[in-house]
Amino acid sequence: MRRANVISGVILVIFGLVMLAVVIPMQINPGPDGMMSPRLVPGMMMGVVIALSLLLVINNIRAKATADDSVAPISRGEIRALVTIGVIFGAAILLYLLVSPLAAGAVIVIGALLALGERRPLVLIAMPTGLLTAIWFLFYKVLGTGIV
Amino acid sequence: MSDLLIGFQDVLHPATLIWVAVGVTLGYVLGALPGLGKATGVAVCIPLTFYLGPVAALGMLIGIAKGSAAGSAVSAILLNTPGEPSSAPTALDGYPLARQGKAQKALKMGLFASVIGDFVSTLVLICLAAPLARYALLIGPVEICTILLFSLTFIGGLSGNSMTKGLIAGAMGVFFATIGLESETFVSRMTFGLLELEDGIALVPMAIGMLAVAEMAVQAGNVKVLDSEGARITDGASRNDRVVLASEWRRCLPVIARGTLIGSVVGILPGLGASVGSFLSYGATRKASKTPEKYGTGMIEGVAAAESADNAVVPSSLIPLFALGIPGSVIAAILIAAFILHGLTPGPLMFQQQPRLVADVYAAMLCASVILLIVGYTGQRLFAQVIKAPLRLIIPGVLLLCTVGAYMETSSVFSIYVMLFFTVIGFFARKLDFSFVTFLIGFVIGPNLELSFRQSLQLLDHNAMNLSKHPIAVVFILLTVAIVWWIGRGKGPAAGERHASAGQTPEKHVPTNS
User: Fold this and answer.
1) Residue ranges of chain B with pLDDT lower than 50?
2) pLDDT digit string, tens, across residues B390-406
């Protein structure tokens, strides 16, 4: 975790500096005269983040090494799962825009089931059907509110 | 008192009572589903109440708020995925209890603590709302600013092993809250030309992404390990594993009393919300315990502490709404629309202009607490069945519900983009031990913090010496410094980071880090 703390601290310092030097001046106008600048609070928060991140980096560089330092806090399986979920949602958004919300909903369920190792055809058909019907019934029939 | 009796007469009518029961049941189900919390539930159901009478309509919406506050503990205990951020501390001990075969015990204690906290807090609301209207006027922007700062510091310090990381997360939350139109000058801030960002980042898709989808991503990465662990989550054979024992009641009652008190006080203070209440209560209980190291491993007191405070916040957060017309929480803000719609304008004058309707609301709230106990207790076995399903079947369903919940906020695909963006942030935050809860609290109180900070600067005429005219603010500034010193001494940057790998943080007591 020590190494991860140093890396995340450095990334946060860079993030804070970019925000302070580039994004905040470019994306926030100074505001009318006589009023407090709209840049004040975002700038203050980034100042706090930079200062605390530097403290995080320094403290972890100075801290003694432990046996756990060699263990990565994030496993490959977790990164793979995050990317897979991103791909599933990407496909769902495409289907939502090009086909229909129903197809998007189905692909989220079926895609996730397949990605997690489910291969039984009955489950692959019944789960999206059941879930989408239940959502339709809850919102359109019970609550009387359209969601799409 | 006579008004309250008339209120009970109105509410105990079957036609009204059934809508309160429908609200509680619906709320319980919505609360149990990750991402669909009380704010979403009430917002979705407001159009449903158009055709109901004022008492039935308000009773139903209050029932949803109360039901979902209690229902969010179900997924926190069974799935380690809090239905709402305020139930995150419930998962810390509730989920380990479930893994030990004590899911029913944890669910029961969660329900009892919820009902007690909720009921007592409703009584606090009834007793305090009208009298407090006079004294609450003493709390101005300077005081609110210092109270919010104190809360953020406290939560940042308590919610992880490293106070530095907690404060970074809190500052990042406030920073993201500044995106959108600035409330005084109406200057766009960091919208990158996107119209969807003019109103700021919507809380619901952000919270769903950070909490639910990020958790699903982590769990999907460990699905085999977790399924094998999940298979071990079975109801204990012993009756003692399924019921709350007298000895546990004795241990938990003082914890529930403290949690109710903390939740009620936090609810009264505008802007803090249920997450602050449940974390404060959990932290205070852990600090007060003789065995704080056992928290996070399945202490039933942890469940009682978090749930009693979480549910106590809901009724007491209506105190500033009723006394001053200022919403003390997200749910109170949403309820304003419903109250006005049904002829009750929240504020000090409502006690004079609409005493009967106020009494009806109070009676409906008390009845909703009792109905919550009945619905929760009888439906618990049904909800407990979730633990028998393998994760590969749960994750797709949760992902779909998260998508629906996020989408409903704005009825736009942009909400899904927001959800996915914060899924990535939430994923790395939880893996690198940056408190995503502090981030969310910073985000929620950010607008209030900024507004009160701006007003404070104007009121104090940019001169810190003028703070001496605001003794309450001075007290909270001193408390903030004391909290930094107190927490920092035991678990501050040096200690926290030095021992980061040696001990698990509360947020790390999830299977994802196993």
Assistant:
1) 491-514
2) 778 888 988 888 888 78
- Given CB atoms, is B411 within the 8 Å cutoff of chain A? yes
Report how far residue B142's alpha carbon sits from residue B144's, in angstroms, rounded to the nearest whole number. Answer: 6
Cβ distance B368 to B125 under 8 Å?
no
Residue B327 has what pLDDT? 63
Nearest by CB to residue A38, choosing from B185, B427, B494, is: B185
CB atoms within 10 A of CB B183: 12
Inter-chain Cβ pairs, chain A and chain B, closer than 8 A: 201
Which pLDDT does position B388 carry in this prediction? 60
ipTM of the complex: 0.94
Q: Are B46 and B335 in contact (CB under 8 A)?
A: no
Quick one: pLDDT at residue B404? 83
- Residue A16 contacts B, CB cutoff 8 Å: no
* Direct distance between the N- and C-terminal alpha carbons of chain B, in angstroms, rounded to an integer: 55
pLDDT of B309 reads 92
Asked whether the predicted pLDDT for residue A139 surpasses 50, the reply is yes
Domain, as residue range, for B151: 2-513
Instruction: Answer whether A29 touches B (CB < 8 Å).
Output: yes
From chain B, the residues in CB contact with A77 under 8 A are 221-222
A50 in contact with B, Cβ within 8 Å: no
The answer to whether the Cβ–Cβ distance between B399 and A8 falls below 8 Å is no
DSSP-based three-state secondary structure for A81: helix
Type of residue numbered A45 = M
Higher pLDDT, B232 or A48: A48
Chain B residues closer than 8 Å to A65 by CB: none
pLDDT of residue B127: 87
**Contact assignment for A89 to B416 by CB distance below 8 Å:** yes
Helix (H, G, I), strand (E, B) or coil at B232: coil
Number of compact structural domains in chain B:
1
Residue B220, chain A, CB below 8 Å: the answer is yes
CA nearest A145: which of B24, B35, B46? B46
Distance CA B489, CA B494 (A): 9
Long-range CB pairs of B482-486, under 8 A, 24+ apart, other chains included:
B483/B150, B483/B153, B483/B154, B483/B157, B484/B153, B484/B157, B484/B163
